[in-house]
Amino acid sequence: MSNTILIIALLVVAVVIFAVVAARRGKATPQLGADDDLKLPKAQPSPPKRAKREKKPAAAKPKEKKPAAEGPPSAPEPPEDDDEVPVSEGEEEQPSSAPPSDEADDEAAAGPPPAPISRRKADVAGLRRGLKKVRQAGGFFGRLKELFAGKKELDPSIVEEIEEILLTSDVGVKTTEALLEAIREGLDRNELDDTDMVWDALRERASELLDISGGGPLRNYGSPTVVLLVGVNGTGKTTTIGKLATRFATEDRQVLLVAGDTFRAAAVAQLKAWGKRVGCEVFAGKDGADPASVVFDAIEHGTETGADIILVDTAGRLHTKANLMDELKKVARTAGKALKGAPHETLLVVDGTTGQNAVQQAEMFSEAMDLSGIVLCKLDGTAKGGVVLAIAAEQDLPVRYIGVGERPQDLRDFDAEEFVEAMLGQGDDAAEAA
Ligand SMILES: Nc1nc2c(ncn2[C@@H]2O[C@H](COP(=O)(O)OP(=O)(O)OP(=O)(O)O)[C@@H](O)[C@H]2O)c(=O)[nH]1
Ligand SMILES: [Mg+2]
Known about the structure:
By secondary structure, the chain is an alpha/beta fold. The protein has helices at 2-28, 34-39, 80-84, 101-109, 124-130, 132-135, 140-148, 158-167, 173-188, 195-212, 237-250, 265-278, 291-305, 322-338, 356-368, 387-395, 416-424, 429-433, and strands at residues 225-230, 255-260, 281-283, 309-314, 345-351, 373-377, 399-403, 411-413.
């Protein structure tokens, strides 16, 4: 009897022990996924792609207002590492406007690129008047027109003849090939039955090439937007600044011109003359001052005085002179020290009459600096005009403006469609010239 009770008691104890152990195991068993999941790194959203070339509006920290400087601008605090040590070749710094990578992420998150600062209405007839030499007999368009005139039937030699005109009109070998490719393909597929269709294919391809690199007026990066104009000697930098200032001033923007060309007294005088004409302030340093220091002071001054747009003139320089190019890079870096994000745009001004030379300048300046666009001046002075296509297509640089004369109103927003229509459109020039 007592044995039976003992066995029952042992069984009860065994059952209790078993139940307790089982319960503990159950607790210790990891909840599938729960804890482990917590330890897993969270899925990172892939960073949005950064829009090419467009920079985000400068988020300038509000500065403490200094009392307005009396008389000529004070000597700048030299931006430490820069003044004494020129940047040597091979250890080129990025211009300060190129943001570090964490800023690039912010930039990507900043959304769409800024809107143009101001835009003019399309005016094909007006532009055509500016491009008169291109359109007259012997000019780029004039020669194409002559080639196509009166022919309806397609002559097999037409592609070679177009090629010859494009090459001798500054379009350049690569871009000529890109233009002719579409025509050759169309002819091979028997899609182009007559000369009108060939002409249309040429224009369409030209528009596409010009559109690839965007283009159009300066963007608005908030006040002040700092724009640096660079280029070789005599291309039209100072004149372009005068033209831009005229336009912005008529739009009630506060414009500050900066005489960053400190080499020649005449350059400062030229800018001051524009300032007087436009009615805007011109900031100039002492004769022979370090251009980077002048630009630094000018940007601080413009920020303090509420300038909307600061246009910085620079001395013309040969793209082949390393020391002068280094100086320009220093100006750009120093601008960034005066105002985060500055220069918001760096425009290369080229002389459209210099043809392939202008293309080479674009190549070398963009290797040295972070260019945001091109201003092509003096297109009124060339019968060729194909350089626009070459620069836009080969250098992948947006054309912001074109200069078609010396007057303030002779600066035009670049628009691919309007430009192709003005240059290659078969309109009535006689009527438009009237
Ligand atoms: N026909 C024509 N002339 C222009 C145009 N743009 C500028 N010019 C003229 O080209 C000449 C040189 O212009 P600037 O503005 O002084 O050139 P820059 O690049 O500032 O010259 P540097 O400061 O010496 O490097 C001047 O006579 C201008 O009037 C244009 O679009 N068409
Ligand atoms: Mg000048």
